[in-house]
Amino acid sequence: MNAPHFSEPVEQDGVPASSTAVTRTHRWGFGAFFLAEAVFLGASVVLAASFGDIGGAGSTAGIALALVLILPTLLAGITAVVITLVRGQGPVADFGLRWQRSDIRTGLLVGGAGLFVTVFATALWTRWVGEDANSAVGSLLAGVNIPPALAVLLFFHVWLVAPVCEELMYRGLLWGAMERLRWSRFTVFVLSTAAFAIGHFEPERTVLLLVIAIPIGVARLITGRLTAAVIAHQVNNFLPALGLLLLSLGLLPAG
C-alpha cells in the first residue's frame, strides 16, 4: 500500500504560496507522538528519581537541575526526528521544516504579537492566582543557586532549544498524525493547542498555557509548515527565559 501524500502551499521564486505545492509523505501516526511523549516522561521520572530532592548551591545541584530540565526535552525532540527518518522522509519533508525567509518573517510577526498577548495574560493570571502562577521550571530554580555558566545554558535551552523540541512533538508529530487522517486544519489546530497546554503537566497553569499556545499554532496553521511555529515559540520564550536567567543568578527575588 502506498503511503498517503499531503500537499501544502509553499512560496517558491516569488510565486505566491497558493500557486505551488510540495508533497509530504509519512507513515507514522499517533503512536509516534505517544512514543516521543513516553521518552520525555520516562527520562523525567528516571532523572528525578536518580537525583531526588534538588536543592542548595554549587555545581552538583546545578548540574542535576540542568540535566532534569534539559535532557528529557532533548531526548523527546531527537526521538521525533528519528521517527521521521525511519517512518517518513525526514523532518524537512514531513514537517516542512525549511528556513525560508517568509516563514521566519511570519514566525517573528506572529510570535511578537503573541508575546504581547502573553505578557498581558500572564500579568492578569499572576494577579488572579498569586504565588501559584510560577511555572514548574521557575519553582525549581527558586530553590537552587546554580553557577553562572549553567544559568546561561538553561537560558539558551528555554529560549531556543526547548521550543524546537516541543514543536517537533506537538505541531510536528501530533499535527502530522491528525493530518494523515484528513482531519480539518482547524480541528488539528485546536487539538494540538490543547495537547500542548495539557502536556506541560501544570494543571494550575493550563488556561494560561492555552493562551500562550494559540499564536504558536496560528503560525503553523497559516504557513502549513513547522518553521514559523518554532520561531514564534522562541520569540514567546525569550522573556520567560530571561526572567529565569535573572532568577537563577540571584538578580530577581525568588518570590
UniProtKB/TrEMBL annotation:
Domain (CAAX prenyl protease 2/Lysostaphin resistance protein A-like) ranges: 150-239
Single GO BP term: proteolysis
Top-level taxon: Bacteria
InterPro entries: Rce1/LyrA-like_dom
Transmembrane segments: 28-51, 63-86, 107-128, 140-162, 183-201, 207-223, 235-254
Keyword field: Hydrolase, Membrane, Metalloprotease, Protease, Transmembrane, Transmembrane helix
A single MF term (Gene Ontology): metallopeptidase activity
Pfam families found in the cross-reference section: Rce1-like (PF02517)
Keyword Transcription regulation applies: no
Protein name, entry field: CPBP family intramembrane metalloprotease
